[in-house]
Amino acid sequence: MQRPAFLGSVLTEIQDAVVATDGHCRITYINPAAERMYGVDASSAVGNLVSDLFAKKFVNPEDEDKLLTALENGGVWRGDKIHVTAIGEEMRVRVSIEVLTDDNGEVTGQLWVIKNLTSSLRDKERVTHILESIPDAFVSVDSDWRYTYVNASAERMLGRHRNSLLGKTAWDVFPCLQDSLPHQKCREAIAKGKAITFELFSPSNERWYEVSANPNANGLSIHFKDNTERKQEERHRLEFYKKTIFAATLGKLIITDPREIYKLTGPAAEIWKIRCPRDCSDTRVAATESVSNHFVDSYDTNRFVTCVGEALCNSIKYADEGIAALHVTKESVFFVVSDQGGGIPCLHLPEVALSPGFSTAGTLGMGFKIMIDYADRVYLATGPDGTTVALEFVPNTRDSAIQKSLLSEETAAVFRASPMIFRNDLADYSD
Prior knowledge:
By secondary structure, the chain is an alpha+beta fold. It has helices spanning about 30-40, 40-45, 50-55, 65-70, 120-135, 150-160, 170-175, 180-190, 230-250, 260-265, 275-290, 300-315, 350-355, 365-375, 400-405, 410-415, 420-425, and strands at about 15-20, 25-30, 55-60, 75-85, 90-100, 105-115, 135-140, 145-150, 195-200, 205-215, 220-225, 255, 270-275, 320-330, 335-340, 375-385, 385-395.
């Protein structure tokens, strides 16, 4: 039998089933995909009624009237059906039926394009089963921030049944989320087109979560992993480390948080942005000139220059950029450097503070040892959102010779060579 003109060789290659019928609903063509889907040969199917190929049921009963109306008007109908093959296998399919006409507008038949949804629906059911059984909360939103899926754990976390969330925007249900940290991070994930992970504390249930926001073609999937126990363990460990480090450094290194640092330092007298090694050098010179009238002893000036150089160098070693600020109080001069790098892991704090040569970046690693030895006090705040280091100098309060004698032999050697070390260190990051 000659195939109709609208059928080309492309129909043999596509994955969807294609069936053509004449004006009496008898099959005139089926492609290889239809042969595989319904378990028949084209030679035996052609000439038979389409109803011999499969029995059909409508997923939505009202679609039957819509189908008849569309076909009577010579149009196109698209919708989901259940097809039952000759051996009794049921398939959920998505069907497109178009009326075919000749040059005079007379109906000559129909063209069916059929996509088997069964496997994708089964995959979706498996994924849904997994998401409903995991202890982690999981939600998805569309491009308009409307909830499209909420699992059982998310219901418990949010304190809302999914029926009160689906189809609504997050801001409709939780106005406080507008412009919040989760909102900002989710927008960042969409803008960058890649997954972003951040930590979130929920005051409603006093739990900590590790949140992963994953953009996709339909919107955003958000996964909440309860990290409360780990955070509690980290907090206990951090408290122990704080006391140990404070004692081991004779009170010179204080682990704290940024708010406490800025309470202590007061407002900034000068601020510099650090983006490259040249910025480090320029800022060190400018800061030294700004505090020159506070340091009468050249030793005070030298230790300020050395510590500031190390702090600035670290800001581009461990993060893309940083901000430096000079603060002057009645008693002290503070130089504060902050960045938005990954922070220092809690487990590494003792090594960073107490072990010469230790580095989380595989670099020189003498930074904190030098700063602790030369500054009067070092305040450190670090976490996943970045690190802030505040160096405190109390001018002219110690005799230079006594102070130098207290330095370790190793650190004193580093101090003597510090200009060269600083230049070499910066050279590693000037590419």
